[in-house]
């Protein structure tokens, strides 16, 4: 995630600082100390990246792993925030979606011009407010069900009516007035005003017959007479917490490893400062011991997350 400096204050160079000293540069540190700080920071980054992410150094080619070709295996070196096409915002996740779902249009790998995807052809009205897409008739989902214009219409309408579903790609549909599927092979999108991205809608089309069942358990709970607060607390929240718990504990592990850099830069006492002192001596046994402590902290956080999963969703422990 990109972060911005929230502080607008001006930095002043102390009167006793040598000429040419940057306003933010710490005074009194020798080049050797600066190198040690850099080494400590590099060690912290290496530790957090190596222990909090998968071991593969770079994404590799995806392939089907089982006999019937319904399991997609992708080796990655980054964490995944969500595999839901409605929620995922990281580049890694959108790349996986490109391998899993179909889009109305795709891009040519040579010059990036628009090529047919789920839609074979498309045309707009003279005022550019109505777009009609012809959907392929020979596409099927992995379960054998045919992919139709109704799937695309349901995907867009869900994003238009559910703020949660618009988390990742809501900007594409904010200008949509109405989306319909007059036939299995025809999709019609009416706009409020002309939109330049109509041939480049980077929205994964999901199978309606699968995704529309996602909230049936909440409907069933309400049909039993449960109050809304019980439905949310006992049914909705436990299912929504799984990816949240994953990110929390991964980031906690990274935080423990990150104290090396933070405590060294800000001269705070703690394990990070002790690690810096061990590098300054150098005291290799102490460095190795601290590395073990930081690594153990990351492993403990990941283990705690695995232990909490069955408490939130009993299906995980089966």
From TrEMBL:
Keywords, in A-Z order: Membrane, Transmembrane, Transmembrane helix
- Known CDD domains for this protein? TM_PBP2
Its transmembrane ranges are 240-266, 286-312
Q: Where is the Solute-binding protein family domain?
A: 114-216
What InterPro entries does the annotation carry? MetI-like, MetI-like_sf, SBP_5_dom
Tell me where in or outside the cell this protein is found: Membrane
Per the UniProt entry, the signal peptide is: none
Q: What is its main location?
A: membrane
Q: Where is this region: Disordered?
A: 1-27
Q: Which Pfam families match?
A: SBP_bac_5 (PF00496)
Membrane-related topology note? Multi-pass membrane protein
Give a yes or no for keyword Membrane in this entry: yes
Q: What is this protein called?
A: Solute-binding protein family 5 domain-containing protein
Q: Which organism is it from?
A: Streptomyces thermodiastaticus
What's the source species' lineage? Bacteria, Bacillati, Actinomycetota, Actinomycetes, Kitasatosporales
